[in-house]
């Protein structure tokens, strides 16, 4: 039967331009569009839109419509300007807000008015646009509930306690209803010095909580987590916020590959994995943003070699600078000596679920962490640097018991000896291996899919009756 998409609400899903936001935002957009009567428009920055859709999106089977917004960097993002204080947020608050406002207006004029704007975290400017148009907004939190709860309590009474002790790594903070977290386990924005360039990222989160507080009704938030993964954090805020735990969002490998900002390496790394023994390979990737310097590339190459285990390493071309030849050189050495394989970008979900992968050395981005837990069922070595990564490492090591957090310096630098020590520890731990397999069983894709679908249906029903 034809799905009459004018019968239910129209969601406008707005994503930050980064891969770690696009993956869960697109996942949600597709699942929302699977609910009868629902219309969905997906919007990310023009630069990212063009990378996902080098040609115009094909009309037809895809139930989601795509309309990009302009953030003032349509030709190319400039990471230096982005890193410089408030510069990018100024562009978002001005250019992107104007562009999104026009999109909302055009959709209304075309007889498809938006009923709810869903925005990935840090895109609070989109909630401001929604408010101007008299439309409700709901954040899509792409980090763990534990990080959200920490921010929420920080902005609701605990700011001075945390700030006064920010310099003491081991100072223990007790957020209501949660296990104690040390300063070094908190999202880095809560303890970063106000003079630091990165401190500007706290502003949009403070504004997000303020906007949520300003609603007449109890605010809602969608979080890529589940009650099994983070029961304490969810219940710690649930008297103030309606949490829709719609995770783990486990995208099918083909869908992940289709929505990637990077070209998949054409080396046959999956066939290479097929030739390796079960549970033997060290998979190492630091996600889409982290750029390794030359020394770090050398240290990792040495540490991996010293483990004596086969490895698959995602080393993006922008790493190793200023020696841009670094990744190819490292790859040639690894592959020449048959130590392992080095690729520029892979289908990570497919790699993590491969029987040969025994452990994942990761920067602990939330997408990577949930994929490892629920699709991979693999042990982890965490090398967190900033944002929510330390909190994700805390969950992985202390709460779920499936890995260890490596000692890294303030820049996240992982030295060869520490890499080897951690890999040896996790690969030698039958207990971590068995816990990791149990998590995969509990949260596996099929199991998660039913729960996620149910939670998304509840969310649509609640929005429809608001
Ligand atoms: N990813 C991928 N191929 C790679 C490396 C990463 O598809 O070679 C994907 C990974 O599956 C995850 C995302 O990129 O979904 C990275 O998101 P995460 O939150 O882990 O880290 P970020 O890139 O935001 O730092």
Architecture overview:
- It is globular, with a radius of gyration of 22 Å.
- It is an alpha/beta fold and 466 residues long.
- The strands form three sheets. A seven-stranded parallel sheet has the order 3-2-1-4-5-8-9.
- It is built from 18 helices and 15 strands.
- 47% of the residues are buried.
- It has two domains: 2-253 and 449-465, Glycogen Phosphorylase B (Rossmann fold), CATH 3.40.50.2000; 264-445, Rossmann fold (3-Layer(aba) Sandwich), CATH 3.40.50.
- Bound molecules: uridine-5'-diphosphate.
- The site of uridine-5'-diphosphate (UDP) has 20 residues, from helix 1, helix 13 and helix 14.
TL;DR of this structure?
This protein is α/β, with parallel strands linked by helices. It contains 18 helices and 15 strands. A seven-stranded parallel sheet has the order 3-2-1-4-5-8-9. A six-stranded parallel sheet has the order 12-11-10-13-14-15, sandwiched between helices.
Which homologous superfamily in CATH is the superfamily of the largest domain?
Glycogen Phosphorylase B
> Rg to the nearest angstrom?
22 Å
CATH architecture of the largest domain: 3-Layer(aba) Sandwich
CATH topology of the largest domain: Rossmann fold
Residue-averaged pLDDT? 92
Strand order of the largest sheet: 3-2-1-4-5-8-9
User: Percent of residues in helical segments?
Assistant: 40-55%
Protein name: Glycosyltransferase
Keywords: Glycosyltransferase, Transferase
Enzyme class: transferase
EC number: 2.4.1.-
